[in-house]
Amino acid sequence: MLSDIKTIVFKVGTSTLTYENGKLNLKLIFALSRVLSDLKNSGIDVILVTSGAIGAGFGKLGITDFPHDIPARQAAAAVGQNELMFIYDKFFGDFGHTIGQVLITKEDFEKEDRREHLLNNFKALLQFNVLPIVNENDAVATDEIVFGDNDTLSAQVAKLIDADMLIMLTDIDGLYDKNPKECDAHLISFVDEITPEMVDNAKGSASKLGTGGMTTKIMAAKIAKDNNIATVILKGEHPDNIYKILDGERIGTYFAPRKKDNE
User: Fold this and answer.
1) Cα 49 from Cα 153, distance rounded (Å)
2) What pLDDT does 67 receive?
3) Which of these, 11, 52, 9, 8, lies nearest to 169 by C-alpha position?
4) Averaged pLDDT, groups of 10, the chain, 263 residues long
5) Residue 256, exposed/middle/buried by CB under 10 A (0-12, 13-18, 19+)?
6) Of all helices (H) and strands (E), which one includes residue 11?
7) What are the two backbone dihedrals, phi and then psi, of residue 195, each rounded to the nearest 5 degrees?
8) What is the pLDDT of residue 98?
9) Given this model, what pLDDT does residue 202 score?
């Protein structure tokens, strides 16, 4: 599979990037930066959609009783985004790669002229061999903080740039046929068709910092599938497993892209 893939969008969630106290998991971020840098070295265009700004902000501010009001979360995002990008810049720089921050709101996809400008921005960054790091502009936007998630954002980015694959790194092994906390739950390793039952069985995030759950990941996979993009949901604690995915091993849950009309 590796030789056929030219562009991959990665999404990493807050629960993967941070500890329960909101502090950044530096060991994991370093390992992820190393793997993504190596993929870039191999000739693959890599885009990283990252959560974690709000959680990192709370950790930076020393807040342990996390408030849910929008202004407090926006303030945490403003502080945490700086912290997050500083760490990414340091680690990716250690591996010889330049990063570029791209903060996005819903309107950037909904308005045609802004969508075109966004696409041109991604194309220019990739042309200059920059690794774009994307997040919702939480400091000014409210939709994602209240209702949404970066799962959908990552799928929209993959669709916009016509990526070959979307890999979502999370705190669970993949999609299960029922609540994974139940002893008889089984991991679904391959999904050819996304059914309503699949969505109904999905449960929300157990993390107090994360906004997305398995339902949003399934819906993101559907967006990708409808645009002929393969999707993988993978536990993010061991970034080296990304290599195994690209070598064709069955780890996590693989959502097959929609078959072309002539297939």
Assistant:
1) 8
2) 67
3) 11
4) 83 89 89 98 96 84 76 86 94 98 89 95 97 83 55 94 96 85 85 87 54 82 95 96 92 86 50
5) middle
6) strand 7-12
7) -105, 160
8) 98
9) 72
In which residue are the tokens 């329960």 written? 20
Task: State both tokens at 149.
Answer: 């998630």
**Residue 18 φ then ψ, to 5°:** -125, 160
* Residue-level pLDDT at 146: 41
Closest by Cα among 12, 150, 35, 11 to 91:
35
3-state secondary structure of 131: strand
The tally of CA atoms less than 13 A away on the side-chain side of residue 7 is 17
Close Cβ partners of 126 (under 8 Å, ≥ 6 residues apart): 7, 45, 47, 132
The pLDDT value recorded for residue 145 is 41
Using alpha carbons, select from 15, 54, 48 the residue that is nearest to residue 145.
Answer: 54
> Can you give the three-state secondary structure of 187-249, one letter per residue?
EECEECCCCHHHHHHCCCCCCCCCCCCHHHHHHHHHHHHHCCCEEEEEECCCCCHHHHHHCCC
**Which residue is associated with the tokens 């990708």?**
224
At 50 the pLDDT is: 94
> Cβ contacts of residue 4 below 8 Å, gap of 6+?
164
- Residue matched to tokens 């997050």: 84
Give the torsion sign (CA, 260, 42, 16, 75): negative
**What does pTM read for this prediction?**
0.90
